[in-house]
Every structure is written in C-alpha cells, then in structure tokens.
From TrEMBL:
This is UTP-monosaccharide-1-phosphate uridylyltransferase. InterPro entries: Nucleotide-diphossugar_trans, UDP-sugar_pyrophosphorylase, UDPGP_fam. It comes from the Eukaryota. It comes from Guillardia theta (strain CCMP2712) (Cryptophyte). GO terms for biological process: UDP-N-acetylglucosamine biosynthetic process.
C-alpha cells in the first residue's frame, strides 16, 4: 500500500521558503499582504508560522501566491455580486438514458465488462460518521445489519476483486482512496486490521487530503489562531489535485489504465451499475461521463447542464440545485425555471450523484496542463452590509464534479441516467433528520433506507435472472421512517457485480422460489442449476477455491425478522440505533463449501 502526502512531491523545501519569505525581506510578503500574520508574535512563534507556511506553499498547486491571487479575485466577484453564469445559455446535454434489462442496457453492460480490465477506481473517503450518529469513519459502517462485518470499504474492495478475477485478464485493478486528517489513520487501521480485505496492498494507494488557509476578509488576509494560520477543508475536488501531485494518474496511465471511476463513500449499490455506465463511456467516447438519476424539480440534487457562452465557451457541468432555478429563469427557453417535463414528470436536467467515469488520456493531459489545479469557488458569510469582514473565516473550495470546467470545448462530456434503485442510495442523514425528511416526502437517505434499497436491488436482480420472488416482504415504521422491505436478499460481490453476472449464476432451466418472509445470503461461486424453494433463512457460502451447485434444495424454518429498536434501548448497537431496527435471526440453514465443489441435491 502506498501512503502519499502531496507535499512530498514538491521540490521547494521549508528552508528555501523561509529564506524567500523572511518577514524582514521586502520581496515576497508585501505582494501577498501577509505581514499581518506576524503581529504580536515572538521569534519562536514566527519561525513555526513560517514552517507552516512553507508546508502550505508546497501543498497548493500554485503555492500560497496562487491561492491568494485566486482568493482575491473570487472575493472581489462575490462582493460585487458577479453572476458566474452571466452570458451562459443552458441546454440539455448529450447523454444516455438506460432502462435496466433493456437491449441497450445489456449492450452497454457487455461493452463495459470488456473495458473493466483497463479501469482504475478512486474512492473519496474523507468523512466521519459523526453527523450520522456514528463515531467512526463512514466507510467502516455496515451496509447490512445482519452482516456487520460487511462494511462499505470491504464491499467496495470485494467488488473490485471480483472484477479483477473475472475480467482483469491477469492484471491487478488499482484502487486509490482519498482520506482527510480526520479519517486517514482510521482508514489505514481498518485496512491493516483486515489484511486489506483480500486486496494486494501494492494495488492500493491512500492519498491524504490537506487543508487550505482560512481567509478572514474580502482583501484575502489569512486568519490566524494561536500563532498559526487557521486552515479548513478545501473540498472533494482535491482528489484530482492529489491524483496529479502523487503521480498516481501518470503511473496508472503508464500501466494501461484507460478509464477512471470516481465514487463516494456510502453509496453501497453503485457498483451494480458501473459496467453499463462504463459501456456508455466507451460507446460515446466521452471524456467525462456523469452518473445521474431522474431528478425531481426543486430536489436538493444538482443538475447536469450544457452551458454555452456568447464568446464561444461551452461546458457540460453540474449546476448546484440552488443555482439551477435562477439560471433557468434568466432564459427565454426555460423561463418557468426548474419545472418538470410534461412527458416524464422529471426535470429535463438529470440529477448528479457525484459518480464520474473519466477517460484517462483526457484526464492525465488536462491535469498535466493545469499542474493539478482545479476550479475553486468561495462562499463567504458577511458580517455586515459592507461585505468586508466575515462572520467567521472562509476558504476557497473545490468540487470533484467541476472537473469538466478544465476541459477544452472540443472535449465530449455527457451523462448516463439510470433509475435510482440500481445506482443511488447513500447514507447521508442521522435517524432524526431522516425521519423529518420522510415526513416531508423526501428521500430519508439513512442507514435503514440504504439497507432496504440494497436488499430490494438484490431481489430485483434475482427476479430479472428468472427467480420467482415477491418485491414486498416485511413493512413497518421504524423511528418515524416508514420502510417497505423486500425479502432479505443479500448477494455479496463475490457472487456477482452486474445483472449479467447474476444471470450467469442461474441456469436457464433452474427454478427458484422464495417467499416474502425469507432471507437469502449468497457468497462466492454459487450456481443454481435445479430447484430451490425457500421459506425461511438460508446462507450459501462458497469460500475462495470452492463452489456450491444447487440442484435440488427445499428449506423451511423460522427465518429472520426485522424488529423495531427504540433509541434508548441499551441492548441495541450503534448501527442498529441508526436504523431504528435490528434483524433477529431465529433460525438459519447454512451451507458452506470450504475447499471443495459441493453439490446440493436433496431430492
């Protein structure tokens, strides 16, 4: 495992910076107007501050000078009320709308499977779970209550290892993880304690994100606290800077990687759709392909737009939901603003879920040209009408999805829209906030809904592969959130990632019947060649190097039950309290193959 901090890649060392920025020297600090930082500091404090400044200077693609220069420009525009979309006309961009199971979907999935051996994956994992009511890192959360060891990070790595085994053509599929100060040590420990979840550490890179100077006023003066420059997070757009600064983008390109997939930390179902999305990128020769879902007007999800300026500039990029309506209203074509299309009932601008597939040639050349710099923005909260001082220090920010702004007008940028059930169900809210959203008819996006949606997806995939299984199982209200569960179906990544993978596990003549109250867990090389009748709970687990072939099996037992958990229940785990329920396992039939081919024929 490579652990890389970006400043290690820079030639300028702290000593050189200190010499060039000595506060007694008139050379560097006057242009930056940063002498205020040294007011009231002793010599030792000044030396420490200069050491910190040297480190910050090395981390920033344009150094401190570039950061301050851009900050002053953006702050001036903000103070004067400059509209960043002035002169741009929005239109619906080019993209694909895929219906799962259609001929187009199957064709794109086939194309994507062929390209998986040339794909690298980047996980943006800089967040803690505190806002969710969880003290650890978000990637250590379990997706399924019944399988607490299957945390998000393990599931993601397991998907990559399945792809590597089935489609890697002997190559190791690389993974890069962006961490933050808050998550770095815990991410390393989670990986090391679990032997990297079976992944070779040589194919894994951890890139630690750094913070940027905080700014206290519209003149771009840095905020100082306890004798140090105050710093704040820069945003997940840093992932592109780090991919360049650490040399990962170049090394991946040199090793034959042609596509890079960027994904988020708690969207546990995203890998199910990625082969088809990758196929769209291949088919359309997209430089950037944004994964999207149908968007309800007014929903707090950005929309992908084509923006064309009078001067010839053109971009296909995400427009944040709070900026989309005023942008549309400023035009004649969309004068009604962010409203639904009469035919579909959704916005014509697809909803961005922050999953990108980027062509490596375009990616590497663009980052090389920009020196790893990405577009930044500023969002100050002014102290008064003068718009000079801020209520609290601000900073420049950047977003991963703004990468297309760096591309030339000729670059082909598009999107792939899929139904939410196949690609998007994140864990964003704690149980109280999720209940409030549910009350308003909005997606709760909680730990419970993420689990429900994952099991519903697994159920639908089995249905589409020929199984007879109802879509609705147990239903109830848990901590104020109404949840209609499917049967408790868990298809682990080692059983298959895409719909085509699942279909390959079930023979055309097989007969699978599962009742609404049932629970099914499938892991590894499991094949259904005959009859399965399930009314209860069944686990089929084939360990690496083994397989299970189901020819004739009927299981009836007490099964599993979803039971409400009160928030003050001392017996509930933290992750159960986050859901408002727990899975009680009354009785389970387990069939495990450790190192052999096990044929199950109980006729």
């Amino acid at each position: 495992m490579a652990v890389i901090r970006s400043w290690h890649q820079h030639a300028r060392c702290a000593q050189e910076f200190v010499l060039a920025t000595d506060p007694s020297s008139p050379v560097v600090f006057p242009p930056l107007l940063l002498r205020h930082l040294f007011e009231g500091l002793g010599e030792e404090q000044k030396a420490k501050l200069l050491e910190q400044a040297a480190e910050l200077d090395g981390q920033l693609p344009g150094g401190l000078e570039g950061y301050v220069t851009n900050a002053r420009k953006l702050l001036k525009d903000s103070k004067e009320g400059v509209n960043p979309y002035e002169g741009f006309a929005p239109s619906v961009p080019q993209g694909e709308h895929l219906k799962v199971g259609s001929e187009d979907f199957e064709r794109m999935e086939k194309l994507g499977r062929e390209a998986l051996s040339q794909t690298g994956f980047v996980l943006v994992a800089g967040g803690l779970g505190e806002r969710l009511g969880y003290k650890g890192i978000k990637v250590s959360l379990p997706l399924y209550d019944a399988l607490e060891s299957e945390c998000f990070l393990k599931l993601y790595i397991s998907h990559i290892l399945y792809i590597q085994e089935k489609f890697g053509k002997g190559k190791k599929i690389p993974l890069a993880i962006m961490t933050s100060d808050d998550t770095h040590a815990m991410t390393e420990k989670l990986l090391q304690d679990n032997n990297y979840f079976g992944m070779d550490s040589s194919q894994l890179t951890i890139m630690k994100q750094n913070k940027v100077p905080a700014i206290k006023d519209s003149d771009g003066h840095f905020a100082i606290k306890d004798g140090k420059i105050e710093t704040k997070p820069h945003g997940h757009g840093d992932v592109h800077t780090l991919m360049h600064q650490t040399g990962v983008a170049k090394s991946w390109k040199d090793s034959g990687v042609k596509y890079v997939v960027f994904f988020q930390d708690t969207n546990g179902i995203i890998f199910r759709s990625l082969p088809a999305v990758l196929g769209v990128s291949v088919s359309n020769k997209f430089a950037v392909n944004s994964v999207c879902v149908p968007r309800t007007p007014g929903e707090a999800v950005g929309g992908i737009c084509r923006l064309e300026h009078k001067d010839g500039r053109a971009f296909t990029v995400n427009v944040e939901y709070n900026q989309l309506d005023p942008l549309l209203r400023s035009t004649e074509q969309f004068s009604n603003g962010d409203v639904a299309d009469a035919k579909t009932g959704f916005s014509p601008f697809p909803g961005n879920i922050n999953v990108l597939v980027i062509d490596m040639d375009s990616y590497h050349s663009t980052l090389s040209s920009s020196g790893g710099r990405v577009n930044e923005f500023v969002n100050p909260k002014y102290a008064d009408a003068s718009k000079q001082a801020f209520k609290s220090p601000t900073r420049l920010e950047c977003m991963m999805q703004d990468f297309p702004l760096l591309l030339s007008t000729e670059s082909k940028v598009g999107f792939t829209t899929l139904d939410r059930w196949i690609c998007f169900s994140p864990v964003k809210n704690n149980i109280q906030d999720a209940a409030a959203k549910s009350e308003k008819g909005l997606p709760p996006e909680s730990a419970g809904t993420a689990e429900r949606d994952a099991m519903a997806l697994n159920t639908r995939m089995l249905q589409m592969a020929g199984a007879k299984i109802p879509e609705v199982g147990q239903a109830g209200t848990y901590a104020g959130i109404k949840l209609d569960f499917s049967p408790m179906v868990v298809l682990l990544p080692s059983f298959g990632t895409s719909l085509s993978d699942i279909k390959d596990r079930i023979s055309p003549g097989a007969s699978i019947e599962i009742t609404s109250r049932s629970a099914l867990v499938v892991e590894g090389e499991v094949f259904f060649e005959g009859k399965l009748k399930l009314d209860g709970a069944l686990e089929l687990r084939a360990q690496p190097g083994s397989s299970i072939i189901v020819k004739n099996l009927e299981v009836t037992n007490s099964g599993w039950e979803i039971v409400e958990v009160k928030q003050d229940d001392p017996s509930a785990t933290v992750t159960q309290a986050m859901r408002g329920y727990k899975v009680v396992k009354h009785e389970t039939r387990s069939i495990v193959a450790d190192s052999e081919k096990k044929v199950v024929d109980e006729a």
